Amino acid sequence: xxxxxxxxxxxxxxxxxxxxxxxxxxxxxxxxxxxxxxxxxxxxxxxxxxxxxxxxxxxxxxxxxxxxxxxxxxxxxxxxxxxxxxxxxxxxxxxxxxxxxxxxxxxxxxxxxxxxxxxxxxxxxxxxxxxxxxxxxxxxxxxxxxxxxxxxxxxxxxxxxxxxxxxxxxxxxxxxxxxxxxxxxxxxxxxxxxxxxxxxxxxxxxxxxxxxxxxxxxxxxxxxxxxxxxxxxxxxxxxxxxxxxxxxxxxxxxxxxxxxxxxxxxxxxxxxxxxxxxxxxxxxxxxxxxxxxxxxxxxxxxxxxxxxxxxxxxxxxxxxxxxxxxxxxxxxxxxxxxxxxxxxxxxxxxxxxxxxxxxxxxxxxxxxxxxxxxxxxxxxxxxxxxxxxxxxxxxxxxxxxxxxxxxxxxxxxxxxxxxxxxxxxxxxxxxxxxxxxxxxxxxxxx
Length: 446
Fold this sequence. Notes:
By secondary structure, the chain is of the alpha/beta class. The protein has three domains: 4-268, Aspartate Aminotransferase, domain 2 (3-Layer(aba) Sandwich), CATH 3.40.640; 273-360, Aspartate Aminotransferase, domain 1 (Alpha-Beta Complex), CATH 3.90.1150; 384-444, Molybdopterin biosynthesis moea protein, domain 2. Helix content is 38%, strand content 15%. It has a seven-stranded mixed sheet with strand order 1-7-6-5-4-2-3, with helices on both faces. The chain has a four-stranded antiparallel sheet with strand order 8-9-11-10. The chain starts with a helix and ends with a strand.
């Protein structure tokens, strides 16, 4: 598979051209990559009106994911989230669109709600869950559709979630198809799912559109992402996707990021399935070993290892600190969970290190933790847009009872709102904020 963007950038980097264009470093090196960092010079194409090397590279990506079209983002899934919501609500033609969404939506979803001014109806699972998880059955989604006060413009899910659980995308997609509602999936953590022996990518399972943060699980620079549109989707989505992306994006996309997306196409074409199958097996073997030691695993994502740590006598952050002392950096840890993310770029030595460290951790008496407060829906007093655009002030969390949340208040990572803009901050909300270490909140000024 050819790599038109990377080839063009490399050729230009190796030329002796006098650079009388942006960026200001003129290709002179400090970091070592400046000569490859270019702007939209002649022949470099333009990302949001692509008809040259970028269009050719996206065509390669489209063939890999078997979509109607896969568009590049140099600004992560945050950009793709806004774009696919823009497409869904403008296609609906509704003056005040409604989106049904699982509560564990990234804050980028709320920013989209503010700028696009759509209503949100949250779908909560029947069982209490961690802040990061909101697993919904297809029946729960259908019930939300049937009881909504109007036909939704879209259903929005996050899968995989931050703890590594996968939603029933295929089941929910069948419900959405029956009701002629597009299913949008934040698949930021799951770009690699397409290349497993059993393809589990949301587009394959029936999603209308999804975003992938390529940089999270593929060999791509941070910020590289995709907006995928399914082959059976409304043609309007493909026809207007570049405008949707451009509406929220910088006019100066990074060619370093675009080149990495381009080179990733060749890698996935040549070695993707083989490498991801091998990595998934190594992670599965590691999980089996940890189970034999008595650890409790959580989630079902193939390349994410999530431990529920109190059963082994530790807080998640204690195990993260232990790993860090052995030069192993984890993705996420809180009182209950430790999350490790793997990819084919991890070496056999990486797996050996993890196994050796866990082999030395002595099991202790099970920690009895107060139940982590499950996400709740607080009373909404304002729309997301009105609350975000209102005058606000930042106050101590303990003093926020009765106030209306302004900016989304998140635990970071993973940037999932504990309380949503426009909702009333109650004592129950305060308890959750403090549990996740949030000591100050932004509230609407009275």
